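Tutorial sheet, problem 5. The two components below are modelled jointly, 580 residues in total.
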Amino acid sequence: MSQELLRVVGLSKNFGGLAALHDVSFSVSTGEIVGLIGPNGAGKTTAFNVISGTMPPSAGTITFAGKDIAGGPPSKVVVAGLARTFQSTSTYPQVSVAENVYRGMIARIAGTAVAKIAGRTTHMVAPAEVEAEIDNILQMVDLQNWRDVPAGSLAYGLQKKLGIAVALAARPTILLLDEPAAGLNHEECNELAKLLRQLQQQGLTLLLVEHHMALVMELCERIVVLVQGEKIAEGTPAEIRGNPAVIEAYLGAPDYAHA
Amino acid sequence: MTTMHGNVLPKERKNWVWLVVLAVIATWPWFSGVFVLHLAILTCLNVLIVNGLSIIGRCGQRSFGHAAFAAIGAYVSVLLATLADWNILLAGLTGMLFSALVSFMLGWVILRLKGVYFVLVTFSFGELTRLALLDWSEITGGANGIANVAPAAIMGFVFDTRPRFYGLALAVALLSIWLMKKLFSSHFGHAIDAVSDNPALAESTGLSVHKIQLVAFVLGSSLAGLGGVLLARYIGYISPESFNTSASIAFITMFVIGGQRSIWGPLVGAVVLTPLPELFRGAVQTQNIFYGVALILILRFMPGGLVSLMTWLKGFRKAKQ
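Model answer (structure tokens):
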């Protein structure tokens, strides 16, 4: 059994009287791909936002690499090694694809705020290194041909890839992907699966929220199912597929799940 | 270009033609009489102050109380020199540091506000500062202000004539432009742009939006503080009205008309707008109408400001070749 990297215990999040998450616990081990699924409104994105530090939890603990990261702020959580992507495309639209990736690297290569102001050390010494790493990351997500194009002019699928590239630039140990396949066509989806598997082989741990069941079933080693803010099941894709509670929650699962 | 692609961190290119033109323009006031020299000094100080505004603006915030930080720098430095008999240089630096300190405390609290709310609070802060200076008349002289401020002096060299002070102002303005150039080609400069382009994404890649905006706010306000220190030494007189809302709005106008996204914007804005009120002395009443119309036109038709004319001309020349 490999090492536990992320551990969520008793996580709850209330918005006023509404419990978006209630007592959710699960863990992710190093090198795993874990899927977080559930019908709309199950609290998947809330879970993501709480884990990545965008919102504080109402109760519960989030331990990442032995440290408590609950409550954020996100910038600290990222520096600790937990990065995320967004459900809709999120880029710096006016600047080039390369600059987008570079901005994703700044927090890591510039260090503390003080170093940022004094700041020239890293990039003055080795701008070539920065450029090389940008090329490297773009190659990984197959965007090298769009290097100098403004990010906003890219097609939707490519912008989603760029979102992953920007997150990778922080060199995270775990990457949280919020619906990476949403809005992608069949081919792009296959490419995405290939990319994610490749990232896993390079040692990255992945936690993804996804509606695209075929992708989740194919990719994930373990799946956590949320329904109305509560965890109702956890297991391998085969176990989840046969779990009566999950089938009931999805009500006519074959229709919803393309599985 | 030798490489196939442009680099994110461009190598420095020297453009000698531009440097010579700028050097000629910068030297010209020394040979053109008192009036031109006076305008040139004010322009240099405005470049400095608007550069500060530009650092804050590039971070996605609009400070409508920028003149207040110039006021803090000016009053603190003058009072330390007159009441506590401090050395002028030391008093000036302390004035600037005081602007930094106040902006840090204010920024820590209000930089969580976005857009129009930040504008409103900085506007109120500007007015509050002015009223405080008016009201605290035992020390600040109230509406009468403080007259007979001694000229600036560094290590025994006194900047008591216009040609001498222009040298100082020009050096400081150029230094601030150099600082801007360094800043916006550094990691931190790119982080500033990232924060204004997409704060949520910047935060999720490890850039603390609040910290970066705070540092930019303090840096920008310190430049305003230095501007105030120098202005007090040049004019020899300060009053709360030298730093009122119209002054803040004048800085914003220079910033927007010059160009918000370029390090040359504040320079162009200050050079174009500082002499205008003097040249149109006969039309004082219509000045604000003129500025209002100019602002609206620029924002509507030329969001990149006058600086974008240069890039447009470059593209035009290239297209012709």
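Marking note: Chain B has one domain: 8-245. Full credit if you identified this.
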